[in-house]
Amino acid sequence: MNKLEQLKAMTDVVADTGDIEAIAQFQPQDATTNPSLLLKAIELPAYQSYLQAAKDLIRKDGSALALQRACQQLAVDIGCEILKLIPGRVSSEVDARLSFDTEATVRYAEEMIDRYAAKGISRERILIKIASTWEGIEAARRLERSEIQCNLTLLFGFGQAAACADAGVYLISPFVGRILDWYTQQTGNVYQASEDPGVLSVRRIYQYYKTHGYQTVVMGASFRNVGEIEALAGCDRLTISPNWLQALSEDSGPLTRRLQPGDHSQVDKVSVSESSFRWSLNEDAMATEKLAEGIRKFAEDQAALEDLLR
Question: Which of 3, 129, 210, 290 is catalytic?
């Protein structure tokens, strides 16, 4: 077996793309999208009819919410196409500009689930992606109670992960590569996979969850090299872009499992409150800076998508 096939035997592989040709080629379990990926996806011929439908919706709907509704519908239409090719779930993202508004995040998520339902897609096949702010985690807590399962994204710090588990979130996406980016920029060091700060962060979270019996799924994301992926073989899930899926599929070397459900952490169970969460985030410069940067970037791409629809 090649390394992609070996990885699939120990980890659920998720495609980090909206490109249906890549999804069909690599046959992942799930797929994830975000505003950045949607901007790339709508350049593909397969999605041109949905882009036009979104523009038509804006022309017909004269309300102040027309643009938001059109963006939601475009994301859902692309999500439905992806779901034709995978057995599992697709993640669809809440507008990043709502990252500090719990009520608005809940409404947006419910509207998106309703749009999928109108297309005949049940909520069991959807994960709502929400930024891992305190407000976003609280929104996810409420959504999970109403059986709308969530993918908490832009997760960089252990405090965010502890809060997500405490809230009963279905899945988290720690951003391995962006953590590495920050430490590389700060130190100038070149990190091997075994010392990679992003890899070590995911291992710590994984072990903490398994030790304390949390059911929240750990899905490593945002990889900078194949070595990071191999160092996390055995993680619950890994969401991987097509270029790294291709690299893994072309490598027939052995792949060793690095994470096991029986792995244990020495960290006591963390009690999470709003004040402790905010203090933990404040004390972690990397997580604070990368969370803010990620929200800004997704918001910029959301605005670019809206400009295109206008």
Answer: 129
